[in-house]
Amino acid sequence: MRKIVSLVFLLSVSLLRAQSFHDLINDGVEKYKDKEYSSAEKKFKKSLSLDSTKFSGSFDLGAAQYKQGNYKDAAASFEKALERAKTKEEVASANHNLGNALLKANDYEKSIEAYKNALRSNPNDADTKYNLSVALDKMKKDQNKNKNKQNKDDKNKDNKDKNKQDQNKDKNKDDKKQDKKDNKQDQKDQQNKDQQDKQNQPKPQPKMSKQQAEQFLNAIKDNEKDLQKKLRKRAAVRVKTEKDW
Question: Is the N end or the C end of the chain the one with fewer CB atoms within 10 Å?
Fold first, then answer.
């Protein structure tokens, strides 16, 4: 008897929990319809705390987050809904909305893949086809934009390198001019030094002819004879001294 009571009690609890989950989902949907997306998000999150295995909980939560502009959170919720999808319709819907969230987050490559997966489950979905074309166009424009930016950056880099080369050329020209100027100054200084050294050098004596040299020698000899005569005369002179006794 106790076992039966316990089983009935457990069944009652399960029914109450199931009813609460659906009530929260329904309340959330009503909030969503009234554009009270933040309140709807709270209801859907609460429903998932009761049962996280339901497709509707994650899918509806992603829709509420998407409406608030939380595209990354919405994409994560749609990915969870995709994991819990059991039918082709659910797979197609989850991939379609996942593509929308990724498109809004500017993740064009992943959004294109999501749309393609949606079309694999529902090939005739016109909205998914249209959104796929939009994503492809945006990705192409983004690639062209990045390419133009890269070309512009490369051009700026080339201009910068060219300006640097021109500056180096100008600097080399200036250096050459300065070197040339320094060389001229060095040459001028050397010339001044050579001229000054030349002025300071003793002037060479003029060369004498043979006849002049003989005359000069004879004159020296005559002078020496006169000098010797004078010396002899001085030697002959005696100084008289007085006796001291």
Answer: C
